[in-house]
Structure formats: C-alpha cells, structure tokens
C-alpha cells in the first residue's frame, strides 16, 4: 500500500469511528509507529485530522472547518476525475453556476474553450481564473467574503440569485447523506447554496466519497433535489444504491 492510500484509509477510519490510535494502526498496516505518526502529521497539515495523545481525531469532531487550501490538498486524484466527468454535464451554451469549493474549482480550470457560456460564481479566486477566458461571460456575486472558504455570502449574493435562471448549477458540499441531505458548516453558505439550486433547471453535485461519511450543521438541500451526483469509485455500492433510490443519477469517475 502506498503512503497516500494508507493516509486516506486512516482518514476514513477516523471519520467512521471518531478516533484512530497510533499503535493499533501500526499493527493493522504492518508498519512502524513512526510511519503512522508521519502519516498523521501529513493529514494534520492538510487540515483534516487533529493530533491528540496517542492518535488523532477528525477535525469535524471539533466543529472545525478546514480552510479551502487545506481541503484542496486531499483526494486530489479523485477530484480531478470528478471535475473531468462534470464537463459532460455542461450545456452547449447558456448559463451555469459554479459553487465555491475545491472540486468545483478544478472544473473551472478545465471548462472547454469552444462553448459560449455565462458563468456565475461566488468565489473571487474562481472569478479571477474565469475572467481570462474570452468565450465566457463571468458574473461575480457580491457579498461578505468568508475567509475560510473564500466564498461570498449574505444578502448581496442572495438577492441576485433570486432573479436568475440558469441551466445547470455545479454544487459542492461538505457532507452528504440520504437521511440528512447535503450539509455545510456555515448557515450563511448554506443559504447561498440553497438559492443556487433553486435558480437552476438542473443541479449536479461534485463530491468525493469521503463527503458521504460526514454531516454538518446546516442543511441546504435534500438528495432528491439533486439531478446528478458525480463522485469517485471509492464510494461503496450500498451508498450508491441508496442515493440512486432517492432520485439522482450517480456517476462514479
């Protein structure tokens, strides 16, 4: 097992049971405790685990929301595949919304140059990338800027969304489950996401398989409100079946 694979499995276990132990992990993976400690250090620097005596706990247990840069450093290969699969959901022309997020940010970077699209975003970094593209008409939603996620929120972003009609909204979420819906830690961001989905004819969720293990404070949609879920092959078949039964098409990239 490669180090990155081991680290992702450590993260999965931490999120599933709430804590991981250095000695136990070393025995189960047949590696030294020093190797496990290095793995935990990598995951802590990525902002997804917090070291505690003898092991680590997932940051979600602390009510902590990792910064965008930290989230952008994990599940990178999966996020790239998800973004590439999302290109097939783009209209030939028309208007789209791209929500602020690490996976949606990858979609922004690979938008095809042969389509005339209006792209609405609530992220200054994403707007900056899009602004250099001659084939795109970019609309940046204003509002209060959240430093942790670099997303604009509150009334100045909500009011324009209430007057828009777009073809597809490409959405991000911190957590997803059939029972609890799509969730995010911040109620202000949840309100923006809810308005984005309402403004769109179709909604596409871009979420790697780790998002299906977590639930956060603020719910912004039910799974049945989403038309397509694009995830990676790490999502287990039972969860895929539950999501499909709730309504959306599931694409595993």
Q: Quick check: average pLDDT?
A: 91
Give the uncertain stretches in residue-range form: none
Q: Write down the overall geometry.
A: elongated
Q: Order of strands across the widest beta sheet?
A: 6-5-4-9-12-14-15
What is the string of helix and strand elements? HEHHEEHHEHEHEEEHEEEHEEEHE
By secondary-structure content and strand pairing, the structural class works out as alpha/beta
Rounded radius of gyration (Å): 18 Å
Helix content: 25-40%
Approximate strand percentage:
15-25%
Count the helices. How many? 10
Number of strands: 15
Main pleated sheet: 7 strands, parallel
Report, as a whole number of angstroms, the end-to-end distance.
Answer: 21 Å
Give an overview of the whole structure:
The two termini are 21 Å apart. The chain is 38% helix and 25% strand. It has 10 helices and 15 strands. By secondary structure, it is an alpha/beta fold.
Topology:
Layout: H1 3-17, E1 20-21, H2 22-29, H3 33-45, E2 49-52, E3 55-58, H4 68-71, H5 76-86, E4 94-98, H6 102-109, E5 117-121, H7 124-130, E6 136-140, E7 144-146, E8 151-153, H8 155-161, E9 166-171, E10 175-177, E11 181-184, H9 187-199, E12 200-206, E13 218-221, E14 228-231, H10 237-246, E15 249-252
Parallel strand pairs: 4-5, 4-9, 5-6, 9-12, 12-14, 14-15
Antiparallel strand pairs: 1-3, 2-3, 7-8, 10-11, 11-13
